[in-house]
Amino acid sequence: KMKSKQGYEPIGDERPLELGGRGDSSSSHNDDNNGDATTKSTLMMGAAAVILATLAFLIGRSTITPTPGGEETAILPNLNNVPTRICEIYSSSHTSSKLLKSGSGGIQMIQTSFAEPSKQWSEVACVNVKNRRNLQEQDEDLQQQEYGTAQINIDFDKVAFPDRPPILGFGGAFTEAAALNFNSLSQQGQDAVIELLFGKSGLGYTLGRTHINSCDFSVESYSHDDTDGDFTLDDFDTEVTHDLESGMVDMMLLAQKSVDESFPKEVDEYGMRIIASPWSPPSWMKAPTSDDVEGALHAELMTGSALPVCLRDGVGEDSKYAASWALFFDKFITAYANHGVKFYGLTVQNEPEFPAPWDACAYDVSHEGDFIANHLGPQLEKSHPDVKLLFFDHNKDHMVKWANELLAKDHPASKYIDGTAVHWYAGGMDRLLDGAQGNPNMHRMVSELDVMDVRKDHVLLGSEACHCPTTGYAGGDLSIAWARAMRNVHTILADLAAGSNGFIEWNLILDSIGGPNHLGNLCDSPVLAVPHRALDAEKDFPAQLGFEHAGHPFGEVHGDNKTREELNAEGSPAKYLDLGVVVQPMYYYVGHITRFIRPGSRAVHGLVGASAGDPEVRTFRPKGQRVAGGGINDLARNGIEVTLWPCEGSTRQEWLLNEQKQLQVFGHDWLGAPTTSCLAQKPDKDFDGLLLTTCNIAENKSGLFEVVPVEGKQSKVHIVSSNNKKSCLVVQPLRNNGGAYGPRGGAQVNVGSCDHPWAEWGFDSSTGEITSSAFDALGEVCLTTGWPFLQVGAFDTSATTAANGAVIVTNEAGEHANYVIKNRGETVLAASIPPKSIQTITFN
Questions:
Q1: Phi and psi of 524, rounded to 5°?
Q2: Per-residue model confidence (pLDDT) at position 133
Q3: DSSP label at 556?
Q4: What is the C-alpha separation between 510 and 180, in angstroms, rounded?
Q5: Which letter does DSSP use for residue 727 in this model?
Q6: Residue range 20-38, pLDDT digits in tens
Q7: Helix (H) or strand (E) holding 809
Q8: What's the start-to-end Cα distance of the chain, in Å?
Q9: Which residue, 515, 674, 654, 481, is CA-closest to 583?
Q10: Quick check: 631 pLDDT over 60?
Q11: How far apart (Å, rounded) are the C-alpha atoms in residues 587 and 835?
């Protein structure tokens, strides 16, 4: 093969591939002089390969593994007794769905799978079955089969939140770190990143976030007015020079241009919407912290914060510093508008409950309310009435508490608040809990908005999410990068099902280690800038640029040790790496949502139900098998909420009543370390339900339970708390009836009266399943760690520029899952999803 610059060998066909395409498979040619023998031999080998691949597909266990040279090799792994289903589309002119009747075209499926990481967004071939008799036979077969086929029940005509705003979109943050990394690329690299993130062939992001003054993802702290005592902000930098020079403003303008050109029909109603959030006021406005010298008049630095409020003279009506800080917002909005960036909204403060070691300003709920009522609300109403004000902007644990106080009609701040911003992080230091906590609180929040009669246009927006520490590329383990991608998608789908109106990732683009961050708080992003890997990079181009000072706190960057061919095979396309850009698995995973659930979409009812037919059969556990399937449970972890979902026969629903009378679960974390946890004895004060906790008896956190038969009810038991003999394990329904999932989609578990019918359970010690019939008419549910392996999100997209409807199926299990999709009880599709995969099905 010919050598390209720096000795790289071309991978197959070097022509750029369209995103999601498979490329041109005819990259080699036979020599005409080789004769008929060679031709016949080639044909015979090709036929044999087709037969082997077909057989492998039919028995359901084949994978296609890319080799370093770009070729594909069919591999037949070990077989099991559960064959996969081919994708079958069942057409019917008698459909009861208005949405499905209104369109023309058909049903299409795309897939991204851990088994074939380099084939992102690839189309899955489906067979059209138009014979109604075949559909009836298929339904009869489901009732008799011995292996599981999950029934995914959707209703395109049942919008979950018809009176609330629709989905506004998805996006990421324009931080200084993002802009510096963006500008480190060549013009070709920059063009590629804009298209990847905002273009029609990319993610199609339409939401963004940026920081007022510096944040931790800045090279150092900075402010737009550092003049002490300048209460009227005469010295405010109206050019926001720092943000111009770092490239933040230009990056936003490029994003806006890309969205306008890619989605012209969305521009009038939606377009690019950016919110701005402050991390810290100038230090001269801040009260001194414990790190400042005794007697200091104000904080020396923008990092850290005094408690319970950071501003020097509080937030009362007469506070000069609070008034000046509110004016600072006003001038910042105007400055950006003069550069062509008009903000959709603001948040009052990034993570107000956290006096962080980086740029920070703390408020408790009372002080944030007073700052809004006395200063920020009136200032915005006077100068920028079209800019929305979102409060809270912190984690899901205390969201409802803040809402109950600040959104109450008699609170003077409530009339100024247009929405709620929420982050996905867990409150402690366990980063593997990020994105895994608080979904029942999202349901609670939407319910409270209704109960408190808050304005129907109130927006609930996921405003920050990322994985830390460092990046998947730096870690070098594809399985961990994939786990991060799956967590992102789970959280987005769960939030949308609960009533969220959108989701904003943290940094749009970072460097190879997840920076720069001037406090070393390195994190991940869907796209990374690695200009030293570009084909046109100089030979001695540094792996870290001058703005990155962190070095290698987590060891070597393993991605840098992988060849272009290896990274391409792992799903980071060489065509982007050649431009100095790494595209990570989470990018392609989230694209299964963002490309199809366009602004204006609405969540509709959708839930993965139990397997059809024999009650002993589960999706991941065939008939006659007692051992739970699905692979390792990575949610057997302290802090995970215990919930109820339709039974799937997986390790996430497998419990052991151990010798100490604890209800125990087992698993491994993403790093492969064994984990075990037990059901808590008391509900968590922030999440109001039972969580997993330590099994250490000495810590007295886990519950001790006895299984007691219910008198007169065969196979029903009470799970009685030995800590309190009058209490039993009980079902606790979600506040808003489960949103788009319905009541069986994530109900909580608590302790309560043993006399309540929801305190009755089934407990099969041979399978480890603990079941409830609390939602009798809908079907039984199983006690679950977190959420099931197999999940779904369903959306009415008919009001958008996309298809009429979309269904997203994601499988986090280590085994494939068969399923059928039924819309209002009528089968529309049967298929299989591979392990650790995501599929998007569009209905046109």
A1: -100, 160
A2: 55
A3: -
A4: 9
A5: E
A6: 332 333 333 333 333 333 3
A7: strand 805-811
A8: 44
A9: 481
A10: yes
A11: 18
Q: What's the sign of the alpha-carbon dihedral 573, 577, 579, 582?
A: positive
Give the separation between CA 124 and CA 116, rounded to whole angstroms.
Answer: 13
| Beta strand ranges found along 290-352 (DSSP E) | 345-347
Q: CA–CA separation, 118 vs 111, rounded Å?
A: 11
Preceding peptide of 469 cis, ω within 30°: yes
How many helices (H) and strands (E) in the chain?
Answer: 17, 36
* CB-CB contact of 778 with 771 (8 Å): no
State mean pLDDT over 216-244. 98
Query: What's the per-residue H, E or C state across 606-664?
Result: EEEEEECCCCCCECCECCCCCCCECCCCCCCCCCCEEEEEECCCEHHHCCEECCCCCEE
* Cα dihedral value 574, 575, 579, 585, nearest 10: -60
CA diameter of the chain: 94
Q: Cβ–Cβ contacts within 10 Å for residue 354, how many?
A: 18
For residue 109, give Cα distances in angstroms to 24, 139, 512, 673, 830: 20, 22, 33, 35, 11
Q: Which residues contact 795 (CB under 8 A, 6 or more apart)?
A: 167, 496, 596, 597, 601, 602, 603, 604, 805, 806, 807, 808
What pTM does this model have? 0.89
Q: Which of 650, 686, 684 is CA-nearest to residue 667?
A: 650
Q: What does the pLDDT read at residue 229?
A: 97
The DSSP bridge pattern shows strands 150-159 and 747-753 to be unpaired
Query: Which value, to the nearest 10 degrees, does the dihedral of the CA atoms of residues 313, 317, 323, 327 take?
Result: 160
CB atoms within 10 A of CB 331: 17
Which residues contact residue 259 at a Cβ distance below 8 angstroms, ignoring those fewer than 6 apart? Answer: 198, 204, 205, 206, 266, 267, 271, 272
Strand order through the sheet with 805-811: 122-123, 107-113, 837-843, 805-811, 790-796, 602-611, 150-159, 817-823, 826-833, 88-90, 127-129
CA neighbor of 142 nearest in space, from 823, 832, 818, 788? 818
Q: Which residue has the tokens 């589309």?
A: 89
- Kindly report the three-state secondary structure assignment for every residue of 342-385: CCCEEECCCCCCCCCCCECCCECHHHHHHHHHHHHHHHHHHHCC
598 and 801 in contact (C-beta within 8 Å)?
Answer: yes
Amino acid (1-letter code) at residue 495:
D
d(CA 720, CA 729): 7
Bridge partners (DSSP) listed for residue 608: 152
Residue 747, helix vs strand vs coil: strand
C-alpha to C-alpha distances, 309 to 77, 322, 360, 577, 703, nearest whole angstrom: 60, 11, 10, 46, 38
What number of CA atoms fall less than 13 Å from residue 266's CA on the CB side? Answer: 31
pLDDT tens digit sequence for 342-395: 999 999 999 999 999 999 999 999 999 999 999 999 999 999 999 999 999 999
Residue 39 has pLDDT above 70, yes or no: no
- Alpha-carbon span 613 to 429, nearest angstrom: 44
CA distance 839 to 811: 9
Q: How far apart are CA 729 and CA 723, in angstroms?
A: 12
Distance CA 701, CA 637 (A): 14
Give the distance from CA 496 to its chain's centroid. Answer: 10
Tokens for 269? 């109603």
3-state secondary structure of 484: helix
DSSP 290: T
Q: How far apart are CA 609 and CA 718, in angstroms?
A: 25
Tokens 């030979």 belong to 539
Burial class (CB in 10 A: 0-12, 13-18, 19+), 235: exposed
